[in-house]
Records
---
Amino acid sequence: MLKFSLVEETPKKVVYKYYPDGDGDAGVVSYDKELKTNSIVTLPAKDKHQRYAQKLFARIREFANSNTFEKEGTIAWY
């Protein structure tokens, strides 16, 4: 599970903080709306294999397809 929150949205990019396991140190990712690419800005210790970041990247691509970036949310999987 991870929680995420929107930090910044501009016409060119969005930036999200995310919390692996819902708490602790936050990671930061960004999405370039023009290039349609994701990047990791800060990787938290709990996400050394980038598993949580990749889950958030998939959700951000869904947001980009609908052009609606949620302010916060939770992603859970089994």
---
Amino acid sequence: ESKTELLKLAEKFKATVLESNAKAVVLELTGDEEHLAKVFEALQAHGILEVVRTGTIAIQRGGHLLI
């Protein structure tokens, strides 16, 4: 039941489910600070075990720099 709830929250916040098994659910999220704060607040009841964050990144694509 809790896992179903968690997956619904992931869908609501447009998270990508990278892995889902009996022990854990791994989500990938992108967004600004406000969006991520809302997601973390919603997920607190489910017990966040680990968060890995990066800052702004740049990607070279087709001769254009995307930031």
---
Amino acid sequence: LSHIINTYIARQWTMADVEDAAQFFSTHNFGFTRYPFPRDLLTSIVQEHDGWFPVRIEGLPEGSVCYPHTPVYTITAKGRYAPLVTWME
């Protein structure tokens, strides 16, 4: 999880990053339809939040031992950015 956070979330995104992600996900399918890529949300993150994701990620420390069915991490977002949580999972 820390690799994904450090590589994709904990850095400032630009419109070039949004375009690269859109190009990547355009090659993916969801059933028989295109993958539901949230371009409008990512564009608004770049424009309104200076490229920083308005989400909160909390997780167990790496290497923790936990019981089955225990959430290892949670992602939360407020308002119109709530659908981003599903996409990020």
---
Amino acid sequence: MNIPEFESFRKIPRLNRECIVTEKIDGTNGVIRITDDNQFLVGSRNRWITPEADNFGFAAWAYARRDELMTLGTGTHHGEWWGQGIQRGYGIGHKRFSLFNTT
């Protein structure tokens, strides 16, 4: 009988800082970009969007809340646009934006 050589399971590095672990939400990617000169852009995973060329209503929602979203500050703010009519919907009657990363 030919027994293969045993391969030990490698050590898993430990995380030595505080972190937050959340559920992966099934929705669609949403991006808010605020430039140094206060330009406000809204995007999906692959393109800039507008209320006229939207992604599940995210651009219309974001532009209606532009002043509030500008408080995020300069940078690119990534999140998930999810809820009614998007992917699994989660049984809610509206859509939500959940911010998950800013750069």
